[in-house]
Model the fold of this input.
Amino acid sequence: MKLYNTMTRKKEEFIPIQEGKVGIYVCGPTVYDRIHMGNARPMIVFDTLRRYLTYQGYDVNYVSNFTDVDDKIIHRANEEGVESSVISERYIEEAKKDMAGLNVQEATVHPKATEEIPEMLAMIQTLMDKGYAYEVNGTVYFRTRKFKDYGKLSHKKLDELMSGSRSLKVSGEEEKEDSLDFVLWKPKKKGEPAWASPWGEGRPGWHLECSCMAKKYIGNVIDIHAGGEDLIFPHHENEIAQSEAANGTEFARYWMHNAFLRIDNEKMSKSLGNFFTVREIGERYPLQVIRFFMLSAHYRSPLNFSDELIEAAKNGLERILTGYEKAKAAAERAMQAELREEERENLQRLEALKNKFEEAMDDDLNTADAISVIFEIVRLSNTTVGEASSKAYCDEFLHCIGELCGILGLETEREQELLADEIEALIEERTQARKQKDFSRADAIRNLLLEKGIALEDTREGVKWKRI
Ligand code: AMP
Ligand code: ZN
Done:
């Protein structure tokens, strides 16, 4: 498989450090609010990479953090008058719900910054010992110029950075030895969460957490480090500086960055206010449609978020699911029979298409082309699977469409929604159970309905229900 490496600006053959194993670290969201559709793009893209590598037989160790200590979280906590852990815990749960809706698999580990403080203190100490870090008034800085490779990922020259960063030098940071130096540890301010450290109470800098979690859960050298392209500089550049200075070895072999999800040709972001949360969009479309929409473009191409494009994705996905259902219906009726000559030939075409799907995915995860191949397979299925088909023939198509959709994280089996009559019947059964004081049965029915997204409300006029 070839992957585009931001570091070398080339597509390179992917060679894992250890045969058969891949360690991937993906920078996760800062949890101060519900995630927006832009945040969902790296989640979906790199979950698809993980699924494809797993399909190729790799044992994938997938690590993705939650940044649960940050200015924005503290700000929100102060607004609500609660501890910042209340905010971060709430939005971690919300993010997990959205990720499940988008069919993003749980990471092997989802570390949280606040639970990795000892590792961060240890890394700062190592950097101090090696002369890469210094403390002034309770703040610990990284001595950027000492790290000779600084700028190698973002292809920036130190001199360019110098002129840019002079204006960035904000009050309170005049104490830095050099304007390029960045924070590893910041001292506690009133009302902020803080941890004890040899440099006084405080909290870690954002860049440091990823360096430490990648080291702890994957190792000093990781195979693939990924995130949105806004993270290349300074976040990933700083991670490289910290990790390589502390560990004395290369940090990540392949750097992958997704392009932005845009809206009216601007990056979708919280700060610009031009965002939709995943939850909002989930009320209008099945989230599977959103996943399909995200994968319909190559991850390094910008993608515009518009109703027309989502409608097109909805229709496209519908074509695939209908094709699958048609093949399934045919398989249920089909007879066990020897494959006919013509079927054999078509199965060879199917095999060739499957190879074409893999070639697309092998070419730097080209999900756009991979989806076109699924359309070709569905077309072949629609035009050749029918009443006269043998069971084995139908099954090959079913299996193939199901498997390839599965790699993209798309479910081919639709969840059956409960119909109103079925709901009414269950409510009546629950009413009878309650009359007979069989409360455990009554509760079981209520829970069953809840699982199917139906909430009950006991009112004076009887039981009312609604879809949630
Ligand atoms: P944040 O919570 O801002 O640190 O973002 C979490 C992840 O979402 C990072 O990998 C970002 O690069 C990514 N991200 C944020 N906005 C967008 C966007 N509009 N399009 C694509 N990725 C984004
Ligand atoms: Zn990170």
